[in-house]
Structures are given as structure tokens and as C-alpha cells.
């Protein structure tokens, strides 16, 4: 196809996503500049209205005077390959035992959301740590301890507000992230409900005294880094432990609630 004709088609298309359109127009610009070969992965619309991933190979054909004339393109359907990669990426983000997000995935999400916060929004972080969890393992065995962790993970996910990300930070420590314009009371109510529900966990009908402490913190746009948010939530957790455990505490920039 001739370069100007394809460029006009791409520019005027309403079916092609903005990102793919930008990539394609960049390819056209590169062709005009004499780039001999380009390769791009693009999500493009198909006849039935859906979208599929394609690998575009684009070769420049120049005229006798060396000026760009034609762009010869070939599209390879790579949808299956992309889906396998996406599934693998999702799997790598999961904690294998609880199936929650792992610590690395939580950190990546937190860093990204802090950069995306709009005026009026806050990113809330909750850290839940089991109280005297070793005692449960020692008294009732590791199968009981595993059961308790599975129950805690299930509670955190089932009770979580819409849009929240729930993860396991390691061992018997869990985290929740939520970006919202709502005031913090609702998130603190969620945290308090977790404390109450964890108390109800049983192992083969026996109350194993499962208890947890929770720290909550929040940052506004441009108020600090991921490490600041994490450290504030960790400080709040420390406050909960110091205040007798089995409770929720909130910490933000030196303010204690």
C-alpha cells in the first residue's frame, strides 16, 4: 500500500484503539524517514467486532531515487501466544498457597496507583498480621495453621471493597490496597470487620484463638512514595500490636487515630 493512503486510513479509523493507532502512525512516520524494517505487536479489530493480537512486520520499498514509496506489511496472528504470556504473567503475580497477589505484584500495583492518583483521591493500604500465629502451629499443628491462613485469605477477598487488591506479603502477613475518593471510615470499617471475622475461625469445630492486628495508612497525590505508604501502614500495625493486639490502628504523616 502507498504510505499516504494507509496513513489517512489509520488516522480516520474509529475502530482501531488509540494506542494501536499511535503505534501505526509512528510506523508510517518511520517509513517516511527511511526506516527499512519495523516490528510491532498490535491489538487490532477484526470483522466480528472483537480484537486480536497481531505481529506486524513492515518493510520499506524505496523508489529509484531512494525516496520511500511503499510499505510492505505482513500481519501474523499471535493471539494464542499473547494469551499464554498473559496467563503466565498473572500466574507469576499470585501467591501459590492462597492464590492472592504476591508481595511483588502488590508493590508494583501500589507504585503505579500512587502515580495515577487524581485530586481528591487517596491510596489506602492495610497490613494484617496474625497474632501469636506460631502458637497455633505449635498447639494444633501446621495443617491447622494452613487452614487459618486460607480462611483469612478468603475473608479478606470476600469482604474487600470493590476495586481493592488483596495480597499476601509473606508468612502470616497480608495486605490490601484501595484507591478511592471516599473517606477512610469505610475502609476502617472493613478492617474492623476483618478483626471480628478472624475471631470466628475454627479448626474442626475448635476455637484456636485466631486473632489479628491491622494497620492502615493512606496517601494523597504527590504526598509520598510507595515506601512511605508501606512504612506508615507498618507503623500503624506496630501501634496495634502495642495496644494489645486484636485491633485496628490508623497512621498518616504523624497523625494517630
Automatic annotation (TrEMBL):
Q: Kindly give the InterPro entries that the UniProt entry links to this protein.
A: Diguanylate_Cyclase (IPR050469), GGDEF_dom (IPR000160), Nucleotide_cyclase (IPR029787), PAS-assoc_C (IPR000700), Rev_trsase/Diguanyl_cyclase (IPR043128)
Domain PAC as annotated: residue spans: 38-90
Cited CDD domains? GGDEF
Spans through the membrane: none
Which Gene Ontology molecular-function terms are recorded?
Answer: diguanylate cyclase activity
**SMART domains tied to this protein:** GGDEF
| Residue intervals of the GGDEF domain | 121-253
Q: What Pfam families does the record tag this protein with?
A: GGDEF
**What is this protein's name?**
GGDEF domain-containing protein
